[in-house]
Every structure is written in C-alpha cells, then in structure tokens.
Design goal:
29% strand, 313 residues, 19% helix
C-alpha cells in the first residue's frame, strides 16, 4: 500500500481509512490493525477505534515485520499500553505511584518499577517518565505516564480542563440513595495530618464533583453496594472523602470512617481511563479488570444474594 495522508478534518477510524485505501473488508482492515501492521506516522496504531488527525501519514508495515513489543509486567504492575508518547499501567494496591520521603529500596514506587522493566525489555528511554495523575497507594488500577515533559504538559492540560474519563469502582458500607446521582462538596486539607475533609461554612477549599451509579446492592447481613463513580474534578482522596461524607464510606477505608475492613485495603479500583492521545490526536480508552481481592469481595457480597443490578451508562 502506498502511504497516504489523512485529510484535514477527518473523523474516520484507522480501520475505515485502511478499508478505503485498500478496498478490503472492514474485518480485514481490523485484522491488520490488531496485527500491528497499521502505522500512523510510523507507529503501530493497535487500536481499531483510533481516529488519526488530519495530516497524519498512514502506511502499512510489510507482512512478516516484527510485531510490536508485548505489554510489560513486573512485581505490582502490568503495562496496558505503551508507545513512544505514553505508558498506561495497571497498578496493584500497596504501591505508591511516585517517590516519597519515606521511600524504601525494598518498596520502589511504580515509576521506578516501570523504568526498570522498560530498560530490561529494550525500550528506548529518552527522557524518563512523567506522572500525569496519581492514585492512592491502597487503590488499584490505571495510571497514566508521559514519556516526555512536553507530552506530560499536554496531557495535564486535558486533566485541568476536566475532559478525560476517570471511572472508578468502589464497594461501600451503606447503599447510596438515590441510586444514581452527583456529589458536590468543597474539600479542604489538614497540612499536618494530610487528611482531606469537607470544608466548614466560610472555610476555603476546592470544589469537588463526581457522578455515581449503584451497580449492585444487598441488605443482608448488612447494607453494602458496588458503585461506579466518574470524576468530574480530580482532588486528592476525592471519592473516599465524598462517599464518607455522604454516609457511604468505602469498605476497608479506616482513615475515612469505614468500620468494615473489606478486603484489607480500601476497596477502590481505577477501572477506566480515557483521553485524547497526544500523538494520534484521537480519543483512546483503557480498562483494567478487577484484581483478585476485589473479585473475591464482590462474590462474597453479592454472588449468593441475588443483588439488584443496574446497567452501566
């Protein structure tokens, strides 16, 4: 296939563009993408839903060319996606995202683990890794890193504008009512204890908003729920504090008022993450499955009790 340039203003997916250029079926175009042969500016697209921006060059890697490197994994993490611009990692609970004052050589942060794995696997490390957003040590799930400072600034601008999709799953004490709604608070932080709390009347703080929906619930032997939360803002400890303030602390979150130890850690998982890819100029979305401790918790709470289920929006 002769390389071609995506027309300005195009909103077509990479699969549709290949189908038009090659005269093949959509299934054949999709298979080319999944095989890593569809290149956008020389980089394998890998996502059939990617929408390359106008001006990008589309080409086809020759049959038999080396496949893109497989996702990396290591102690406490697996890489969901890696390319020359970004790294998306699925973090296990118990690991901090970036270095702290109390860092131990036996317990390196996620960023150090990623850099070590990348170097071992032969990935070119040009500048390092910049964290775009963080999740708590006790929270599992998706974390986004940029592979250059310029890319980090571009991605952080998206988060500042509140455009990325950040969706979490939480298991709560108590059942949210109504079953679908929005929480809005002003949050403040104690500088000494680092505890985040709902600001008192007249006290300065930062606006915090999220949307939630109950996915499963049970009343026996105690009221419990599985809740999907979508951040509108992105404050530290936001879901934990807002759910606690509403009367539904997250299981295992003793710091914010939970009495049930849950899975032995805060039962919160960063499940979905979506944003505009800084290299492709197209929306991308990644998803992380529940870790084993949360699967076990969910089965214990709901598998034997015919919970009320609600469809995700």
């Amino acid at each position: 296939m002769t390389p071609f340039v995506v027309p300005e203003g195009s909103t077509a997916t990479i699969a549709v563009l290949l189908r038009g250029a090659l005269g093949c079926s959509h299934r054949e175009a999709k298979e080319l993408v999944l095989a890593g042969r569809a290149l956008v500016n020389g980089v394998a697209a890998l996502d059939v839903a990617a929408r390359p921006r106008g001006g990008a060059e589309i080409s086809l890697a020759p049959e038999g060319a080396p496949r893109p490197k497989r996702p990396l994994e290591g102690p406490g993490f697996r890489v969901v996606h890696i390319d020359e611009w970004i790294v998306v990692a699925d973090k296990e609970p118990g690991i901090v995202t970036v270095p702290t004052a109390n860092e131990s050589p036996e317990d390196p942060p996620l960023v150090a683990r990623l850099l070590g794995a990348m170097a071992t696997a032969g990935h070119w490390i040009r500048e390092g890794l910049w964290v775009v957003h963080r999740i708590d040590r006790s929270t599992s799930g998706l974390v986004l890193f940029a592979r250059a400072e310029r890319i980090a600034e571009e991605l952080r601008a998206q988060f500042f504008a509140r455009t990325p999709l950040r969706e979490y799953v939480a298991w709560t004490e108590g059942i949210p009512a109504p079953p679908r709604g929005e929480l809005s608070h002003v949050l403040a932080e104690n500088e000494k204890s680092r505890r985040v709390y709902v600001a008192r009347s007249g006290e300065e703080g930062k606006d915090a908003r999220l949307e939630y929906e109950v996915e499963a619930q049970t009343s026996a032997p105690a009221p419990r729920a599985r809740v999907r939360a979508r951040l509108v803002t992105g404050r530290r400890n936001q879901i934990r504090v807002q759910f606690s303030a509403a009367g539904w602390p997250i299981l295992g979150d003793r710091f914010y008022g939970a009495s049930d130890e849950g899975p032995g850690r805060t039962a919160l998982h960063a499940a979905r993450l979506g944003f505009v890819h800084p290299g492709l100029g197209a929306p991308v979305e990644y998803e992380a499955p529940w870790p084993a401790d949360l699967v076990k918790l969910d089965r214990r709470l709901f598998a034997q009790r015919s919970p009320t289920l609600r469809r995700r929006r």
